[in-house]
Amino acid sequence: MSFSVPPAPGAAPDAGLHAGATAAYAVPRGVRLWDIFVTFLYIGAISFGGGVVAYLRASLVLKKGWLDEEHFLSALEIAQALPGLNATNLSIIVGDRLRGVAGAIVAFAGMTLPGGSMVLALGVAYAANAHNPYVNAALVGVGAAAVGMLSAVTLQIGHKQLGQMLNVAIIAATVLMVSFLHISLVWVLLTVGPVAVFLFRPRRGGTGEGDADEGEGKAP
Amino acid sequence: MNENLSVLGVFSLLSILAVGGGAAVLPETKALVVETHHWLTDDQFRDIYGLGQVVPGPNMLMVIVIGYHVTGFLGALMAFVGFFLPAGAISWAASRVWDHFEGSPWRRSLQQGLAPLVVGLMASGTISIARTAIDGTLTIIIAFAVFAGVYCVKKVNPALLVLGGGLVGLALLSGTGAGMPPP
């Protein structure tokens, strides 16, 4: 598995990358909904600068002890494989494991409330100041900084894959289709997705792990 | 009213397409919002994406501002519900059945196959923002400085670097009319 969690400032470095859940650990029972809400609200309010997953891990695993490392990573694995943002998916999955549907709802609400209300307030102010040269100049700087941050995060997540030809081919094919041929994401997901999964298909006598670098597959 | 429904529809579609997270769906978001529906200009999209960077939580919460630009507060709600409800419901349901696939070797194939696809989509997201955000020496310098700060100095909070970029822009560009909408 090649995703990694970019470390949040002050958070402990990310331990292993994935885990199959083991049965040894049980999710605590009777965690109060209010506790779930406040915990996620706090994370939603302090997790500046992206990398929310690292904040979640620090709080849920290290501070609250609601999940052990393996359960957290297995929930993260699900959150990453499915559509939607990792942070909100993870909130929903963890909330659900703690207190069912109600837990999922309060965890999601807590995670999105602070940032959502702040960005809406900023958006209203932005709409009212569309012709203010100071606002526009500052936002040009913010936009440029966002490009730097996005490329750094992309490289952090992708650097492990760059050593493997097959991964590089899939990355290149995706970028080519999306950024240069402007093919709709629906078609990219429906073509590159199955081909990529097939190229990493389980092999007889192996786990499929790291053995897919023979370059026998052509990227679409 | 019609426009509210199309906000809901567009962001619901994006929600389902957001395999690999927010940055992965960024190019498609821009294509639909700017090119297909003309809800925003290129510059407004860059600005609103920037707003998402300076608030806590997932930066794709900026979809709320896009909805607000289309039809006001109801549009903001539509964008929020559209972008988060479908994917949230899928995650909720899937996490309940996921453990049944424990041990299936295809689960690993799925992860290994999707990982480079997601990295490719994130790279495309970066390119799509860069196409409007990078337009001169100063923006190149800011982008490289933040890149180096995030990638090499792990302890620094990226939000502070993004805010720093805003301050540099404010200090050096405010006399130049940079980022101003055409009259």
Describe it.
- Chain A: This is Chromate transporter.
- Chain A: GO terms for molecular function: chromate transmembrane transporter activity.
- Chain A: It comes from Ancylobacter aquaticus.
- Chain A: Belongs to the chromate ion transporter (CHR) (TC 2.A.51) family.
- The complex is a heterodimer of chains A (220) and B (183).
- Chain A is mostly helical and 220 residues long.
- Chain A has 2 domains: 33-128, no CATH class; 134-199, no CATH class.
- Chain A is built from 7 helices and no strands.
- By secondary structure, chain B is an all-alpha fold.
- The radius of gyration of chain B is 18 Å and the shape is globular.
- The chains are: A mainly alpha (220), B mainly alpha (183).
- Chains A and B meet through helix 1, helix 3, helix 4, helix 5 and helix 6 of A and helix 1, helix 2, helix 3, helix 4 and helix 5 of B.
Q: What structural keywords apply?
A:
heterodimer, A: 220 residues, mainly alpha, 7 helices, B: 183 residues, 8 helices, 76% helix, 0% strand, Chromate_transpt (chain B), CHR_Transporter (chain B)
